[in-house]
Amino acid sequence: MRVLILGATGGLGSALARSLKGHELFLAARSQGALWALAEEVGGKPLPVQLEDELEVQALMEEVDGVDLLLHAVGRAGRAPVRELGRDLLEGMLLSHLLTAALVLKHVRFRPGARAVFFGAYPAYVRVPGFAAYAAAKAALEAYLETARKELRREGVHLVVVRLPAVATGLWAPLGGPPKGALAPMEAAKRVLEGVLREPPPETLEL
Amino acid sequence: MRVLILGATGGLGSALARSLKGHELFLAARSQGALWALAEEVGGKPLPVQLEDELEVQALMEEVDGVDLLLHAVGRAGRAPVRELGRDLLEGMLLSHLLTAALVLKHVRFRPGARAVFFGAYPAYVRVPGFAAYAAAKAALEAYLETARKELRREGVHLVVVRLPAVATGLWAPLGGPPKGALAPMEAAKRVLEGVLREPPPETLEL
User: Given CB atoms, is A147 within the 8 Å cutoff of chain B?
Assistant: First the structure.
């Protein structure tokens, strides 16, 4: 399989990369030492990219060309009550979760029967005080994908929305660390890949 | 009742203003002749404002001070397939539907027992090819409000999300006009007000 992992240096992205060792791997992430170290470890190609920049995304997709599996492991977390919420937090959430996904879906080149995997969220877990911006970004992403799925079906592409319980990654660092009982990243990656590679591919995968 | 209508010169906003004649009305909208004409017609106070600008929203809320009923009739529509979608369209949708609502909720001053009304969307109606950006913005708004409701409850405020069928307003102009069977704005306004003023106030009102 030709696999593109976006956000490859994140906690979930790097666990996905390690679980897919042996496949033809393209690892996209912000330029940093961890990207080169990971690429060497798993035998993938490091592709430094700023995913909020459309021209960079377009260039990335030209370089990678067709993919069988796309994994969008991009996002950030943040907390603020709505009575104090800064515009930067709200816009940052939307850029990171939704805009990157939209740019990727616009420019990615799929091989026949490809799967594109994105990470949504259980509404009941995220629509809790302090998380309005995060909840809005995840809901926007899921709605965008549900609509996109209907358009991309004619290209023979399968969009998969994965809802995970909390995973113990750096996403939680701004919030003081992951909640108790958070899944280990390698365990989460294993469950994600088992689920999304099923035949027929699921539309929503709740883990 | 002391009522603030945001987007007062829009098709739905102006119908709401006309239906609320006799109350103490504050009419906020982009500065244009229609705002002054409407204010004179319904006996309200015209408040020109750019709702995507936080300082203007803050100043507006200081001027209006406490409200019993807030109506957020703000939004725009647009269509593009995800393979061609421009960043401007996506960002415009999110600014108009979500950011304006977030800024309003941050700065509005509520009187005890106040109701704040926003317009969501039936997922099945909007998650259709060409409407990914619109669907994402409405889903983001609803998720934001569902979270905000839990925070604002302690202020004694009731957030109401209204889902309307299509209403025959200028929102549809960029799409070639409203769909067949769209509700007349005055009829939509009547149903909205009957619904949101019920005791106890509904959380979601599907019309």
Answer: yes
